[in-house]
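Bench notes, afternoon.
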Amino acid sequence: MKIKYILGILFLLSIYSCSKIEKGFQSNAIRYKDNDIYAKRGLILFQSDRINADGSTPPFTYKMVNLRKEDGSPAPVEFSKAYEILVFKEGTSFDAEKDVTVDLLNKKRETVKRLPMYFNENSGQLTFNRASANLPLGKYVFDVEMTNVTGTKLFPKLATINVVDPEGDDLFVVTDNVSNAFHDVTGVATPMKNPIITCTKISNNGARAILKMVDKNGKVFNPKAGEIIQRGDRPIFENYAKFNPVIKTDTAMICDFEVAPFPLTKYVTPTTDWGFLMYYRIPSNFVTVDGFPASLGTFSVNPRWSWQLKLEGTYVIQVKFPDVTKK
């Protein structure tokens, strides 16, 4: 009888102790790897890290709550507004060897409406797309609700979104840049100061490169009037214009390049891999070069450069000659 009594007590204790076992665990210390998330406006794709659940029992979900400015005021409406962006259709991708016309390219592209930012409720990952070009610069904080088998818990100010402009290297890189003065009679080349190449983004729309050449005072050379010409059989702007012809105006050469990066592919001939090099000449009757007096004869200006645009948009690429004066 005594043994039965003891066994009964042990049985009741086991039931009681089992009822106290927690069904799961939810950490108080979930976090991003870096709680400062930097979103560069207008990039094709940028993704943050996932939230570290810190050993919490799966499955779990997250919900972004109360996105707001750093001062506590509401987030701009641009975060919740859908914008039109040009994307490749699902299941398709660009093939530089086959998609050689705008018509072929457009068969794979479509205009869709997208929010500039998406929050993945399974991972907590933030994704930004081209529509993020419309987001105002600034710092924005948000809370996160985490839910698993234990319930829902709020984590205030889990991270800060820093909306910033892309850095220079995200948009444009220069890989070669020299200029030489060629004597009109002897053809002897004398090194000049390197040109100053700058790239200015003037619009998020389109995919246009506007190439300008100016003297040290900012006076523009006129490609339409023959003030800028090709150097023999070497590659120029037109050799990299894959989809649309280059348009020459009084102030610039313009290429609608359709797809970034631009140039898209290297220029290769049967004998030479030119990379992205472009060669030009400004004839001597349009220029004088510092340090080259008339007594030495006349000299043309012969720049060579290599650069690449990384993103779609409309850009002015200016090549300035710091030791050249336009006549």
